[in-house]
Amino acid sequence: MEITMNHGEELVVALVGRLDTVTSVELSNAMNKEEIKEAKVIFDFKDLEYISSAGLRVLLAIKKDLDDHNKTLEIINLNPVVKEVFNVTGFINVLTVK
Amino acid sequence: MKFPIRFKIVALGLLISVVATSVGVVVNTLNYRNKAVDAMYTQIKASLEDCRINISHQTDELNYIDAIKATKEYIQTQYEANPYDPVFETFEEQYNYYKAKYPYVYGPTGAGLSLDMLIFQNKYKLIISLLEDSMITSSGVNCYLAYMDDARSRIVYLGDYRSDGRITEGCILPGSYASSFPSYLTKEGDYYRYEVPSTNEHAFALMIHSNVDSTIFGYIFIKYDFTKIDEDVNRTLLTTILTLSLTMLGLIILFAILSHFYIVRHVKKLNDTTLEFSNSLDNLEDIKVLDPKIKSRDEIGELSASFVKVESSLIKYIDALQKETHEKEMINAELSVASTIQLEALPSRSFDDDNIGLKASITTAKEVGGDFYDYFYLDDNRFAFLIADVSGKGVPAALFMMKAKELIKFELSQNDSLEQVASYVNEALLIHNKEGLFVTAFIAVLDIKNNKLKYVNAGHERPFLIKDNEVTQLNIKNNFILGGVNGFKYVEEEIDFDVDTRLFLFTDGLNESINSKREEFGYQNIERVLKENASQSNREILRIMSEELNKHTNNVEGFDDVTMMMFRSKDPKNNLALKYLNPTYQAIEDIMDKFNNKFASLSPEFKGELGVIIDEIINNFITYEKRKNFTISVLFEKKDDLMHILLVNNGVEFDPTKKKDKYIEGYTRDLEEGGLGITLIRKFTSSFTYRREDDKNLLYLTKKL
Questions:
Q1: CB of A53 within 8 Å of any CB in chain B?
Q2: Confidence check on the interface: ipTM exceeds 0.90, yes or no
Q3: Residue B109, Cβ neighbours under 10 Å: how many?
């Protein structure tokens, strides 16, 4: 999985590939390493093939962490599979999706 | 409750002594009393004799006879004149009555003495003195004179030694009478004797008769008190009881001591030894003969010797039994190892790659059996598989089977021609085969590139072919068994074998399995089950076939091994088979890369959803399993409008289909996101089932394309 961080007014994190058991650890590590000055983090899922429950777990952890630092999280460009995962699990009620 | 022998002996002794003492006392007392009475009688008789002589002597001198005669005549006259006295209330009344009736005897009343009365009284005094004299001579307690009124059965009293003007209460009143007296009398020589009823007094009556004509005038009665005798008897009784009791007690104690010395202590020793011996049986290694060491030359000593004999026999028996058991255990253990080695010599019960699907099952009737199957690639395009059955059972069959299996494999690797393979194996098996063992076998090789199957059947059951849901038993040349006759020419055959064609191979243990009515399972049932389940997977068909077989035999134990194999040629375009030994999570990426590569034309949505399913399941498999040789295999097959997915692992039993769905209603700070995987799997599949089979977890899923 490719992870690209674009710093600016907001931090835009673009994910390419799958967010699953293996790659969710990569994302978690990348986010922990990254110095985030922006008040808002946007995950761009345009090129994300799918997300499994392991990916959801990492997203929740990231949200909790950002909350602690009074930052907001937003997810954009969900493909139908990811959207379905969010809907089925109820994560649509947890994360801000645009 | 315990009753030691000592107590029993003492109790029995006490009982015996009580009885013996009682009998002794009764006998002794009676005896003693009789003797005492006899002695007294002898003494009395002597006294009475003295008395009689005295009387006789005196009557000669002093004319006592005359006095007695006169007294009797006087009282008899008055008595006969009025023989029935009234009933007296007081002594005074009685005394006055008799005084009036017998004035001569009782003395004058009012007027002075007449001469007659004076003469009579002198005579009466003589009588009284005679009685008194007799009383003294005889040592009696009482002495009186009476005569018999035979007509009225009465004894009429004439006087008491105390009645000479001294008549007081307690005296016998002259003129009074007693009824029924004679009935008590017993004649004993010159006197009568009687025991006065309800007293201890014995009375003796001496007849007074005339010296001239023996006329009986009357009787002198002398009474004796026997109370003293009874006192003597009682004293003797007490002494007897004491003596007897003490003697008995002594004997009991002696007996108890003797019984302890001769019996009880030996029995206790024997008992202790027996207990010690039986305790030592808990640890058979330390068991040895224990001697109670009882040296007495009696039955107890014999018992002790017998006990030692029993012990040594028992030890011998236990030794023999242990040896036998040990040998049996060894044999069983060795057979078990042999069975394991044999079964491990067979390749895995299932094999899958993109071209081949194979599932086998083997059930041995004995610890080690003669059935076997084998399969292997000869090269990239040729896959060999075979099923065989060795004649006979048990260890010889098993050893022969190993030999046959290796021979066939070797010859297959060396020869293209199955005819040659069969020939060479046949020749090789005939060497050094005194037992005359042989093998039936169906050996086949699939040419994957050209979809051709060639085979040789050496006297084996003909397999069933399943194609396009049609089931037929191969009509092929049977040839002869392997290891039968030298130089047999085997004939091989070849058929088209397109993808998705299947072959069901089996040994005769299947069709020849009988039920309690001795009906065989038969080819018809095999064909029926195959037809009914033609669309099922290899694994399912074998499972159902086993179920049907069990239903048929209904637990009648099989005599023969049952081996089955489902072979299938797969279309590599629609099949993907993957296998991982001790996988890491990286396997998930590998599976999805290979899947996406093989099924590239599928929509991104399908691939995405399948990715989620695979990630959830494989993650679950790996996270909860830590064993060595943990294997995961994944089979994908695209068929009609479905993707079939079979995931198998050899981990601990775990059924994920039992988990409930989860849905998160909203965000909270302490939100837990576990348990969502199962929700996603259900959402993204058409079916999702679990089965535990052959110690494996099987997850079977389908997903609409």
A1: yes
A2: yes
A3: 9
